[in-house]
Amino acid sequence: MAIDEKSIVEAVSGLGFKGNEEGLIPAFGLHLTTHFADYYNRSSFAVARAMEGSGLEDDARALLVEAGHICAFNTFGGIMKSAEWDAVVAPMIKTREDWLHGIVAVINAFGWGKWHIERLDPGVELKIRIENSYECTGWLRDYPVSKFARCYLATGGVAGLMNLMYVGDITTRPELTEAYYVELFRGGDAFHAVETSCMARGDAHCELKAAKS
Amino acid sequence: MSACSDSPAKVLTVHAWQVIVTASCARRDLYDLRTNAVIPQTIRPWLSSLGTTSGGESLWITDVPNTHRITVAVASGRVVVLPRMEPTHAAQRRSAEDFFAALWEQLARYAG
């Protein structure tokens, strides 16, 4: 593998991301924000908890995971099309699978937990382990050990990575339009992810597996 | 979802450059120039003079307060301008156009 995660983390960390006078971080062709992880956590967990016991638990989970799909499409897709990617990550890329190792390195630079690719079977399966997922650390601080997995955004994110790479082809820098989203995430070929281990459920770490249904 | 998908790109012509303009759901467009040539280190002081800079040898970022952020991928010759949201679209475009015109002159000067 040609991707040097340490170099990527150092390069991204050295860019001095902080909010501008509009309160936004324009980077990677996107507008990022910096705010408390709990802002997202408490919003999503409130939705999930409100639905639990109503018979709509699965619907709540599907909605929150869908937010992760959309995040992956726009944010991960945007990052992989960006000038920053061209300068920092692209020179290390030797194989198609390096794109996934590269985006995981960027994710780790952003501090969304420590992601690690456990297994990548190109076009078939991606298994990601996350240490200290911010969704789970937030859950465990505020709520008892859960009966359900709670890494909604990460679950959508892992499926999104596979859809960007193997259902679509982010390496060709496509326009990230609604039509392209539908093509990647709504077709019969789309990847879906499940969280097989979750710290919120008492597991040692979180583990997510994306595969075709 | 539809509110947050980028619209198909348009083009801004600056001298011989075709700058790709991608509209966004957010109130700004993104201006993306591919010069397909290495950006010479000699223009870095000029870029730095435009605002606050960060980045290393291969990636330069210049933040121009209240205007836009300029990102330069040196080896690939890609230059991206991401406007602030507060100015109108017309003002964003004018600032980007002025920047690319000045960049054209800088590159012409050092190439010549």
Describe the structure.
The complex is a heterodimer of chains A (213) and B (112). Chain A has one domain (5-212): Muramoyl-pentapeptide Carboxypeptidase, domain 2 (2-Layer Sandwich), CATH 3.30.1380. Chain A has helices at 5-13, 37-51, 57-80, 83-88, 98-110, 134-142, 152-167, 178-185, and strands at residues 25-27, 30-32, 114-121, 125-131, 191-197, 206-212. By secondary structure, chain A is α+β, with helices and mostly antiparallel strands. Chain A is globular. In chain A, α2 packs antiparallel against α3, α2 crosses α6 (134-142) and α3 crosses α7 (152-167). Chain A contains eight helices and six strands, in the order αββααααββαααββ. With 112 residues, chain B is of the alpha+beta class. Chain B has one domain (2-111). Chain B has two helices and seven strands; from the N terminus they run βββαββββα. Chain B has helices spanning 44-48, 89-111, and strands at residues 10-14, 17-23, 29-34, 52-55, 59-64, 68-73, 78-83. The model of chain B has no long low-confidence stretch (mean pLDDT 89). Classes of the chains: A alpha+beta (213), B alpha+beta (112). At the A-B interface, α4 of A face β5, β6 and β7 of B.
